[in-house]
Amino acid sequence: MLPYRRATGLVSLVLLTALTACANSPTGSNLEEILSAEPRLAAAQSDAPNRTATLPADFPSTIPLYPNAQLQEVTGQENVQLTRWASSDPITAVQSFYENQLRSQNWEILSQPSNEQTSTIEARSGDLQVTIVIEPNLVNTAPTQGNTGQQSTQFTIQYNRNSANTPVASAPQQGEEGFIGPVAPSSPQPTTPSNTTTPSSTQVFTDIDKAPAELRPYIQDLAELGVLSTQATANKSNTAAQQFNPTKTITRREYARWLFAANNQINSTRPAQQIRAASTTQSAFQDVKPSDPDFAAIQGLADAGIIPSSLSGDSSAVLFRPNAPLTREQLIAWKVPLDTRQALPAASQEAVKESWGFQDVGKIDPKALRAILADFQNSDQSNIRRAFGFTTLFQPKKPVTRAEAAAVLWYFGNSSEGISAKEVLQVKNQPQEQSNSTPQPETSPTAPSPTTAESPPTTTP
Fold first, then answer.
1. Which DSSP letter does residue 144 get?
2. Contact 215, 407 (CB under 8 A)
3. For residue 454, what pLDDT is reported?
4. Low-confidence stretches of the chain (pLDDT beneath 70)
5. Which residue in 125, 270, 351, 412 has its CB near the most CB atoms, within 10 A?
6. Confidence (pLDDT) at 77
7. Is 322 among the domain residues?
């Protein structure tokens, strides 16, 4: 063994001497290039530190920043900006930091964490509202050298700096600044079941062309049915031209209102499929009072078990957070039960990943997995495909736009049986069309078969 080691050392010494001697010769240059790191790899390594995300220049200085966190991503929609962070600290440390910092800086706390798996903190200071969603980071948490395997944390900070659109803690009443309505003509008190089941008339929006082209037909059909009530309807007639703001983030309150109205209007000839408005003054949520203009719809959805609440056995859902942005996983979790009309299938992260192929399935709330898996089984009538097209990233915590919400609400049912807003309009307009045309042989006035609905084009993964 000893002679072999001496021989190896001798060869190494000779090679080193040769390289040194030939450093300035063409042969030496060639040897250096061969033995050096691949140039593109070296360039990529030198550029890597410059690829980290940076905070927007107008990021509010009053929002506390967790000291041991790295910024991962910055996104924005209309007036809402979102930053995504990662930290090696446990979720309890991050949660405690923001609770203490916001209180010490005199922020008004609108909602506090009530779920150990995912913590959500909402707070307001002046015209600035912030929503902080903290959850475990399920990636790279295994024990390694120098790492005890303690679960790391990821969190998002979403903020709105526009006072005209800043959500408020409690719903303002008609005549107060920030009221988002709507007040339906001749509407009774929220305890009357007929309160919000039938929208009054067609809505006319002047900015539908600002929506993605593939989503415009959905918005137009639902507007014609009169179910997309906006802030403007508080002081204007539904037939007056108004702004829909298709790229604006929709709140949980607005989506609940639209979901309730769309389901009942599209199923107007099928009372058994309709959701009853709240017939009680007992609220399932601490932050939605009977005086709230959307109480009838929100409480009705809770009574039907569509929105998670203490009534459905979710003891942590004591707050509805009506003015918080609606996320993608909430969009699907609330809608799919109204498509299947039966118990949702058991689901796991592995099952959802195998069916949809989502790369970020680990970020989805376990409570939403069943609805997302059931939605996959709806084939071309899947809500996810209709709203988002083909995607391998679900981005469950991403805020939903008004246009995306409209796309989801355009159709109720599964792939073999259902009904769309377009079909309802065809039946609704049929008598008028027949009266203005030359008499034809008598035909059945029944609605077209749901399975042959003429749908806007969809993309199937």
1. B
2. yes
3. 46
4. 1-52, 76-79, 112-118, 138-151, 161-201, 230-241, 431-461
5. 412
6. 59
7. yes
Report how far residue 385's alpha carbon sits from residue 357's, in angstroms, rounded to the nearest whole number. 13
- Which three-class secondary structure state does DSSP give residue 310? helix
Query: Do 127 and 231 reside in the same domain of the chain?
Result: no
Task: Say whether both 354 and 225 belong to one domain.
Answer: yes
Backbone angles phi, psi at 82, to 5 degrees: -135, 135
Scanning 117-251, the segments in alpha helix (DSSP H) are 216-225
Domain, as residue range, for 125:
70-160
Give pLDDT, residue 261. Answer: 94
Write down the pLDDT at residue 283.
92
DSSP state of 109: E
Q: Is residue 76 part of a domain?
A: yes
114 lies in the same domain as 247: no
Q: Are strands 108-111 and 70-77 parallel, antiparallel or unpaired?
A: unpaired
User: 23 in a domain, yes or no?
Assistant: no
Q: Is the same domain home to 224 and 346?
A: yes
Pairing of strands 152-160, 128-137: antiparallel
Would 55 be classed as within a structural domain? no
Q: Is the domain of 284 the same as that of 379?
A: yes
3-class state of residue 33 by DSSP:
helix
The CATH number linked to 121 is 3.30.530
Beta strand segments in 211-319, E: 241-242
- Helix (H, G, I), strand (E, B), or coil: what is residue 66? coil
Tokens of 77: 């929609």
Q: What percentage of the chain's residues is helix, strand, coil (to nearest 5)?
A: 40, 15, 50
Rounded distance, CA 63 to CA 48, Å? 28
Angle, vertex CA 339, rays to CA 338 and CA 344, nearest 5: 85
Query: What does residue 126 show for φ and ψ, rounded to 5 degrees?
Result: 65, -125
Domain check: are 208 and 351 in the same one?
A: yes
Query: If phi over 0 gives left and psi between -120 and 50 gives alpha, with beta otherwise, what is residue 251?
Result: beta
- Nearest alpha carbon to residue 211 among 200, 199, 222: 222
Number of domains, the chain: 2
Do 140 and 208 reside in the same domain of the chain?
no
